[in-house]
Specification:
Distance between the termini: 64 Å
Largest sheet: 4 strands, mixed
Number of strands: 8
Number of helices: 4
Order of helices and strands: EHEEEEHEEEHH
Structural class: alpha/beta
Helix content: 25-40%
Shape: elongated
């Protein structure tokens, strides 16, 4: 599919969320979700942590960071981790100010992944067996941000899957019906031969 003129080479590099304490956040994203800490940028009053999934090779090299896509940036404003009056960051999923929703990851086996999350004591917002959408889960990170977890092999909702399966069934049924009619219909040579004999 062609790009809009002037946007060739554009890419989605990262999204940023603020975290209260980098220690539990890095523990969660690295050891629970399996991301790799690609780069850290310390500053006098804040620190940036860039994480992503390492698919091998040079993908985690700092020099390649700007060329990568789908990174997660954690921003820690120094002091929030020890500030007793700090109320935490808004997840974006409650009123007032509902806006930001979630980030999402894919896994090869949703059931196995959720079992692992359970064993690790991860907080769930929604398990796969809950709600209308049975093919996804939502877990919470240490700051309460929502993380959608879905299977690599499921790219649509159950309702859409059933609709597509029904349409496929109709196509197969129509195709089978046409083949059956073709077998019952005499070919052109037989029709000509029969017409000649009837005419005699």
């Amino acid at each position: 599919m062609s790009r809009v003129a002037g946007t060739e080479g554009f890419g989605f590099n990262h999204t940023m969320i603020r975290v209260k304490d980098p220690k539990p956040s890095l523990e969660f994203y690295q050891n629970v979700l399996g991301m790799t800490l690609i780069h850290t940028i310390p500053n006098s009053d804040f620190t940036l942590y860039f994480l992503g999934y390492d698919n091998g090779g040079d993908s985690v090299k700092t020099t390649q960071m700007a060329a990568r896509e789908a990174l997660l940036e954690l921003t820690h404003n120094h002091g929030t981790e020890t500030d007793e009056n700090f109320q935490g960051y808004h997840s974006g999923n409650t009123e007032p100010g509902r806006g930001f929703g979630h980030i999402a990851i894919t896994v090869p086996d949703l059931e196995a992944a959720c079992k692992r999350f359970e064993d690790l004591g991860v907080n769930f917002r929604k398990r796969p067996t809950e709600g209308k959408m049975k093919n996804i889960a939502f877990i919470l990170d240490p700051d309460g941000y929502w993380i959608e977890v879905c299977s690599n092999f499921i790219t649509c909702t159950l309702d859409l899957q059933m609709t597509l399966l029904f349409r496929l069934y109709l196509i197969i049924l129509q195709s089978t019906s046409r083949r059956s009619m073709d077998r019952q219909r005499p070919d052109a040579e037989q029709v000509v031969w029969r017409n000649k004999h009837h005419a005699q």
